[in-house]
Design goal:
The structure holds two protein chains of two kinds. By secondary structure, chain A is mainly α. Chain A is 74% helix and 3% strand. Chain A has a single domain, classed as Orthogonal Bundle (ABC transporter involved in vitamin B12 uptake, BtuC). Chain A contains twelve helices and two strands. The mean pLDDT of chain A is 85. Chain B has one domain. The longest helix of chain B has 30 residues. The mean pLDDT of chain B is 83. The chains are: A mainly alpha, B mainly alpha.
Chain lengths: 297, 354
């Protein structure tokens, strides 16, 4: 336990800014999670591993001498097809089935992805240098890497673009219709199979963007996918499906919580704190609902 | 009925004789046999609440890891200061005598069984109120959080791990260590089997099945579902703790995320084994665990490095194509053997309909 943060108030500003910028990134991943959960009724444990894979695409570009920031354009394009292929191979067989089956199946996918990434990119912790420099605030007492500001900005741009796309485009309308009632959509001539594939592809593309941003702001490692899955799951159950402002706000809240937990409990308990928060949120919701004799479903 | 009992008697005595003779017959595979016993115990007790109760837990690894740490801590802490032991790491300044070692591990296993069961009872009321996938994800979170937190606690070795006491050097027989752990795990297996078998013949199982099939209706029928759910989870936790304690002693080294709270291996294995054999049957998890163990030991060495890829693919294939498992498949094929009465006419007409 380290209470340095309460002795140096500037650290609080630091943690808050870090947390909010990070939280916007989490919200982007969570939006993808909410999308597939709402449309296909699938909980994707491999979500975090898709994120890390997207990050490694940007990292590969960095190794090849291209600036990793271009990853936010290249990575989602590649990841869209990865997601689409994944849907055609596995996910289309678990849609409409017990949620536990989708959890286990995507857990299997996650293990495969982790190991393949371990083979291809090695087990080292890597980071792509963006060389954007840092911004100093408040007499140099708060340092803010420009890459974090960049990543939050790009996340917002993509999130807004996606919302507009979902509202205006033909495919977006089809996706929303399928989410509301798959059978009715089918009767009215929507090719739900195509819609599902596109939804999973869009989700993977979102993960790709987030991964590319993570490769320049945080670090990459083949086995750190699961915390991202849990974070996005947590944001979705707090915010509800398809409520974008709430997703953004709870994403930022989670980012804040993490940064403060990092300072107060110590870095070694950071991931543990995230997982414990998940347990606490679920238990809190359970007790709140049980007063009305209902339960989470 | 009398004939049936005789058949059972032959089966069980045969299995027990096989179990007792196994370490002498396959002397070189004692460690693998111990693993097999532990895997069967884990699969069988997971099945009790995953298969029978319908509460698919990813978090039984919590009790397994807890049991592992508790056994080792008690075994060391009974005779020596625990903090100094873990700090010295590999270089041992303290040595257990033979009597101390066995006393320590005996008490340790007892503690490792009781405390996880109590923990399951304590958190059960909060966690078991969640249903379906929320329960699955919550327990997944619990298991991983436990690993991460254990990796930050200094007194049990934190990130550098915890070396469990080595087998007493005074016993010169090189076979003794393997035999000791094998027979301990075999006794636990027999106890677990007797207990689970007893549950299968009791009202308790019917209640668990009622909870699985429709919890609201079960509640409406006046069953206090929460009470039974907690007891079901406590039984699982009890045996998971014991299994963990034995594995800790056998492996000789406890790491927070790679050995104890190893959600990526043991945590998935127990679910997979139960599903492979068939959820909700007595023999399914046992057959599933045995098959899985043979598959794992046979294949792991040939595809070194690719084993996790194979494991992941195996999970996907089993879950998508055989969600009912081996026993479910057999049941579909030979329903008469499972005591189901089939109307031949009805069956034929169904086939024609297809």
């Amino acid at each position: 336990m380290d209470f340095l943060i309460f002795q140096v108030p500037m650290l609080m500003v630091q943690a808050s800014l870090d947390g909010i910028l990070l939280g916007i990134l989490f919200a982007l991943i969570a939006y993808g999670m909410a999308l597939q959960w709402g449309v296909m009724n699938i909980i994707n444990i491999a979500q975090g591993d898709l994120v890390i894979l997207g990050g490694y695409i940007a990292y590969t570009m960095y190794l090849a001498g291209i600036h990793p920031a271009w990853g936010v354009i290249v990575s989602p394009i590649i990841m869209y097809f990865v997601g689409w292929a994944l849907y055609k191979l596995v996910i289309n067989k678990v849609v409409d089935r017990d949620l536990f089956i989708s959890i286990l199946a995507t857990f299997g996918i996650a293990i495969v992805f982790q190991q393949l990434m371990n083979f291809i990119f090695g087990a080292d912790v890597v980071v792509a240098q963006s060389e954007y420099g840092t911004t100093m605030l408040f007499d140099n007492s708060v340092t803010l890497p420009n890459s974090k500001i960049f990543s939050a900005f790009i996340s917002l741009v993509y999130a807004i673009a996606l919302v507009v796309y979902m509202k205006k485009s033909r495919l977006g309308r089809a996706i929303r219709a399928t989410a509301q009632n798959a059978r009715a959509a089918k009767i009215l001539g929507v090719d739900t199979e195509k819609v599902y594939a596109a939804t999973f592809g869009i989700n993977a593309a979102l993960c790709g963007i987030a991964g590319a941003l993570i490769s320049i702001t945080l670090t990459l490692h083949p086995y750190v996918g699961l915390p991202y899955t849990v974070r996005s799951f947590m944001i979705v159950i707090v915010a509800g499906l398809g409520n974008l402002p709430a997703v953004a706000i709870s994403g930022m809240g989670l980012g804040l919580f993490e940064e403060f937990a990092d300072y107060i409990l110590g870095t070694e308990f950071r991931i543990g704190a995230v997982f414990m928060l998940l347990v606490f949120i679920l238990v809190y919701r359970r007790f709140k609902l049980s007063k009305k004799r209902e339960y989470l479903k | 009925m009398e004939k049936m009992k005789q058949k059972d008697l032959i089966l069980y005595s045969g299995l027990i004789i096989l179990g007792l003779a196994a370490p002498y017959l396959f002397s070189a595979f004692k460690v693998q046999l111990t693993y097999l016993c532990v895997l069967i115990v884990l699969a069988m007790t997971w099945n009790l609440q995953g298969g029978e109760m319908g509460y698919n837990s990813f978090g039984n690894i919590l009790f397994y890891g807890l049991g592992m740490y508790l056994t080792a801590s008690v075994q060391v802490g009974m005779f020596f200061p625990l903090a100094e032991w873990t700090e010295s790491g590999g270089e041992k300044t303290f040595v257990h005598t033979t009597a101390q070692y066995f006393q320590g591990i005996g008490v340790g296993l007892l503690v490792a069984a009781i405390i996880p069961a109590l923990v399951a009872g304590a958190i059960g009321y909060a966690i078991l109120g969640l249903r379906g996938h929320y329960f699955a994800i919550c327990t997944l979170g619990l298991g991983i959080a436990a690993g991460e937190i254990a990796g930050g606690i200094e007194i049990i070795g934190a990130g550098q791990g915890f070396t469990t006491p080595p087998f007493p050097a005074e016993i010169v027989d090189p076979e003794a260590r393997g035999k000791f752990f094998y027979f301990t795990s075999f006794i636990v297996l027999v106890l677990a089997f007797i207990f689970v078998k007893y549950i299968y013949g009791s009202r308790f199982r019917l209640i668990l099945n009622a909870i699985r099939d429709n919890e609201d209706k079960a509640e409406a029928m006046g069953i206090q579902t929460m009470k039974y759910k907690i007891v079901g989870w406590m039984v699982s936790a009890f045996f998971c703790g014991l299994a963990g304690g034995i594995m800790g002693g056998l492996i000789g080294y406890i790491d927070s995320t790679d050995v104890a709270f190893d959600g990526r291996e043991m945590g998935v294995f127990m679910v997979l084994m139960a599903i492979l054999g068939g959820k909700g049957t007595l023999w399914g998890p046992i057959i599933g665990a045995t098959l899985f163990h043979f598959f794992k030991e046979g294949l792991w060495t040939f595809i070194l490095g690719w084993q996790y890829v194979a494991l992941g693919v195996l999970i996907v294939v089993i879950v998508i194509y055989f969600p009912e498992g081996l026993m479910g498949w057999l049941r579909e094929k030979y329903p008469e053997r499972f005591g189901e009465v089939i109307d031949e006419k009805d069956r034929k007409s169904q086939v024609e309909l297809k």
